[in-house]
Write a structure and sequence with these properties.
The structure is a single chain. The protein is of the alpha/beta class. The protein has one domain: von Willebrand factor, type A domain (Rossmann fold), CATH 3.40.50.410. It is built from 7 helices and 6 strands; from the N terminus they run H-E-H-E-E-H-H-E-H-E-H-E-H. A 6-stranded mixed β-sheet has the order 3-2-1-4-5-6, with helices on both faces. The relative contact order is 0.16. The N terminus is likely disordered.
Length: 220
């Protein structure tokens, strides 16, 4: 004979609403373009990068991690699977030993995004590369579509935030000769489920855009 109290408990359990799916963990490669066209300052005195690192880690939940990358004429990375602002800031400061001359060479941004994919593609959760740049790629081995296709195959989204302060009207082409800051990144971003966003309002706007990228990534 079924006991009424046990039956009531079982029925209540069946009738409970199913919990909403939990947000996914994230594994992120956060890349900073440090070419001279982005900032003429000495990198050790440029606080905006560390400000962005702190803002990113404030969004972290258990299971989230990041790796920091510095992009100049080459790309350099810190260790992967970092989860605190203290760790990531220390990694960033270690990367600042790069020779200043590397900031005046080419900016292989497509190759840097591809290198970021290689750092996170085997990590758990939603995986993404996020690049903060002035959006002027030069000296690449890979083309934009090649980098996008490789990232899409790896299941890693490519996300780019472009400072537009250096994008100007080309006087040789008249008032309509305006370069779009995201035009070289839009295709690869769409191929991978990422975004390219334009920032014209300084570091605080970049932080807000990063928060948007991370929220979308977590809830994909």
């Amino acid at each position: 004979m079924i006991r009424r109290d046990l039956f009531a408990l079982a029925l209540a359990a069946v009738l409970l609403p199913l919990p909403a799916s939990l947000p996914r963990s994230m594994s992120i490669a956060l890349l900073f373009d440090v070419s001279f066209s982005v900032t003429p300052k000495q990198l050790a005195s440029e606080s905006s990068f560390e400000e962005v690192i702190r803002a990113v880690t404030k969004q972290f939940q258990p299971g989230d991690s990041a790796v920091i990358g510095l992009v100049a004429s080459r790309v350099a990375f810190g260790p992967a699977n970092r989860s605190s602002a203290k760790e990531l800031t220390a990694d960033w400061r270690q990367l600042l030993v790069a020779p200043p001359s590397e900031r005046f060479g080419p900016s292989p941004l497509f190759d840097a995004l591809d290198a970021g994919v290689s750092r996170v593609h085997a990590l758990p959760g939603a995986r993404a590369v996020v690049l903060w740049t002035d959006g002027r790629p030069t000296g690449n081995v890979l083309g934009a579509e090649d980098a996008g296709a490789r990232a899409a195959t790896a299941g890693v989204s490519l996300n780019v935030i472009v400072d537009d302060k250096t994008w100007r009207i080309d006087p040789r082409r008249g008032p309509l000769g305006i370069e779009r800051a995201c035009q070289v990144f839009d295709t690869m971003a769409r191929m991978t489920g990422g975004v390219c966003l334009v920032n014209s309002r300084g570091t605080s706007a970049t932080v807000k855009q990063l928060e948007r990228v991370l929220e979308q990534l977590r809830n994909r």
